[in-house]
Amino acid sequence: MSLKDKACVTGIGETIYMRGSTQTAFELQLASSLKAIADAGLKPTDIDGVIPVGIVSGTADDFIENFGIPDLRFSAVIPHGGASPVMALQAAAAAVAAGVCRHVLITFGRNVSMGSNKAGARIHNMPQFHYVTEFEYPMGAIAPAQLYAPMARRHMELYGTTVQQFGEVAVACREHALLNGNAVMKKPITLEDHFNSRMISDPFRLLDCSLESDGGAAVIVSAAACANDTAQPMVYISGVAEGHPDSPGSITQRPDMTSLGIGKAAKRAFEMAGVTHADIDVTEIYDCFTYAVIRQLEDMGFCAKGEGGAFVEGGRLKLGGALPTNTHGGLLSQAHVWGLNHVVELVRQLRGHGGAAQVKNAKVGLVTGYGDMGDGALAIMRKA
Amino acid sequence: MNTPANPIVNPIAKPIVQPSPMTQAFWDAAAQGRLVLQTCTACGTIRHYPRLLCTHCFSLDYFWKDSPGLGAVHSWTHCHHAFHPGFASELPYTLVTVDLDEGVRSLGIWKGGDQLALGMRVQGRYDSSRGNLEWLFEPVSI
Q1: Where are the beta strands (DSSP E) in B29-104?
Q2: For A136, nearest residue in chain B (alpha carbons)
Q3: CATH number of B69-142: 3.90.120, 1.10.150, 2.40.50, 3.55.40?
Q4: How far is A143 from chain B (nearest CA, A)?
Q5: Using one digit for the tens of pLDDT, what is the confidence trace for B13-28?
Q6: Are B123 and B136 within 8 A, CB to CB?
Q7: Yes or no: is domain A7-115+211-383 CATH 1.10.20.10?
Q8: From chain B, which residues contact A within 8 Å (Cβ)?
């Protein structure tokens, strides 16, 4: 059995994205969840599966208690950081395809302004990073920027990838964010602005790094057989897969430190969906750093390894380009809610509700997740 | 009470290594200035970072083998932002990833200037002269 077209994303919800929110992470998570449920035309008690993304705020039990869910039939925890939302699509699709449950809520909330959920503050507290905590953190490798930078540096040294090519990703995301009323970043940037931005961990400048945001996002995955009863245009999950890199807990020890888990998953997802790269009208690619977009494009086979830098040149990722990417602004310029906003945006695009950022005639799209040093996942969706 | 030993040099403490029962021997050796690598007793495969099982033969048995700490540069990053206040006074500093000659990698603090290149030969050494134990790499002159 394949998961192809067995599940639909029937509801999407987001809070306002910002810094300085006075709402707790769970309040934000609940608010976005209620929006997604209403968007689908469902009631909170219709939810019979819950996947809270990460272990950050509300648990499945919290949703039973707050929604008064009479019979929750499925719950899961997926501990892979920013890869978790798209991995959750696979878990949810499998659960509804098998008839375990009908409507799975995938939900996330975070408040970095109130808590200590910033990346630099949390890594050494997370069990999956115990190697980093023991061997690298005491030497000064504290935050993802410092841990991912050597991957990017090696890519530059081996393939000639340039700072300007990183900048192409940053500029495309910013241009798209300016079309989105719910994006944190409001000012245009140029390649020069990117080049001149403050160095964080070479080769990453400030504008290569994603935001830290307060907000909540949620989606509902429903069994395709049940999706006809919901309120919105149907969007099918046609192909979905997750993949994990070798040496997942440490980039330092990874045999090829430029290779990501998504490289193992991409072929599975494309084969399941029965589409080729040329069929993809729009992509939402997890952009914790600009380099991560370039490398995922390579690992998914949109271009050959080492050619990702050239691939993103010339506005290819911009609206109107050959592969519009991060049409909401991404983690770089809309908000960082672990990439669940990427899933929301792809569904919006395939419904034709993309507003000023709508990709014309978008029929098939792709969303990725990337987390915890290189775990990856992708989903290919299509409109009915 | 909570006053650091030398508040001028290091007003805010850096994170320190916290060994696990499995890695205590690694850090005991490090405190003596020795790099040791976990080596499978059954098949001889060297593994790093330390873990319970040999991926090659799944044996649980291992011993710690001394390493000269020689290798080649695999990648690096120059850090210009302190994500922990203990490193603020050290900016910029450089972290280097090294292919040790035994076939595993190591991440340390670079002490060799701005000229870094893939494949450059380097030597690692432990240093605790500044308080915390540090793992440093320097160029090897050939």
Answers
A1: 35-40, 46-47, 62-67, 70-79, 93-100
A2: B107
A3: 2.40.50
A4: 6
A5: 899 999 999 999 999 9
A6: no
A7: no
A8: 14-20, 23, 48-49, 74-81, 83-84, 87, 90, 93, 95, 97, 104-109, 117-118, 132-135
